[in-house]
Amino acid sequence: MDRKPHELRNLLPREVLQARLDAETAPRTTLSFYRYAHIEDPQAFRDECYARWEPLGVLGRIYVATEGINGQLSVPTPNLKAFREALYSVPFLEGTRLNIAIEAEARSFLKLIIKVRPKIVADGLNDATFDVTKRGRHLNAREVNELLAKEDTIVVDMRNHYESEVGYFEGAIRPAVTNFRDILPVVEEMLEDQKDKEIVMYCTGGIRCEKASAYYLHRGFERVSMVDGGIIEYARQCEAQGLEKKYLGKNFVFDERLGERITEDVVSRCHQCGRPSDRQLDCANTSCHILFIQCEDCADAHEDCCSEECRDFNRLPEDERARLAPGRTFNGQRFGKAMPPRSEPESGAGIQ
């Protein structure tokens, strides 16, 4: 299938994409997958994937690198079989497990984005210094629960703080960092004197733990395991087998949903008033756009903004906002992608 380069990407504006998605009548299935493999020409492979998947109505975000592929997708359910066949027609992807989301029919993506990256996960590691194929043991849901029941098991959340803030495994170590490359040295330092202990790591879909487990084994940790398929697969297995869920709250996802509920527990608090809430959103002030947690009452009072400053700025006419924005600093510039975690309700009234 010959496609010109400009035809291998979607350049339609968001409102058109949203209207197109809203007009769909067929259900969709949200899923994710990854596979470490040697890809000689990532750009050619990327273009081939786009040309094959776009006619099937596939939406999502996929990263391709010389080390493999990592994708989060939404596929029209009637086309799921055709997509699986197209995926498995690539020799190194044959048999790749598709992690079906808990809230699988949610509208999770607006368009198909496939990008070539240096790595499929930005880990900051020099892969040439250790054997990336010597990874930790994969645990199914039952094995996870059995290990978590043992007192000396150490559980480590390998996600960013804004992911673990709204949901986590009971008793997990949750580093207060904002990107994966920073988690690796922080966890290593925290567990330096416990390298002989049973360590269970987990992340959203398992891909971050694949590389991290190999790195920690290389660094002298003796018993490193990972939740196979991450939180997504763990929750699916618990549902299918009637197992108790040791993961509490929501699972943060990197799509339009921002999260899917695993249990009814609300483990986080509104960043503004401190009351229990796990409603995550991006600040409505697009000049800020920080990710934060806000309860319904504060959402009404602040109009989905992270602060009174952002609310008042957002009320200004569009042309005035455009004129003033370059000289203003909002929470998004101060804190980066997400608001710092709030763990104690008595610590004040939040960022106003």
UniProtKB/TrEMBL annotation:
SMART domains: RHOD (SM00450). Residues 324-352 are annotated as: Disordered. Keywords: Oxidoreductase, tRNA processing. Signal peptide: none annotated. Residues 149-239 form the Rhodanese domain. Coiled coil: none annotated. It is an enzyme of class 1 (oxidoreductase). GO terms for biological process: tRNA modification. Pfam families: Rhodanese, Rhodanese_C, UPF0176_N. Belongs to the TrhO family. Catalyzes oxygen-dependent 5-hydroxyuridine (ho5U) modification at position 34 in tRNAs, the first step in 5-carboxymethoxyuridine (cmo5U) biosynthesis. May be part of an alternate pathway, which is able to bypass cmo5U biogenesis in a subset of tRNAs under aerobic conditions. NCBIfam families: PRK00142.1-1, PRK00142.1-3. This is tRNA uridine(34) hydroxylase. The gene is trhO.
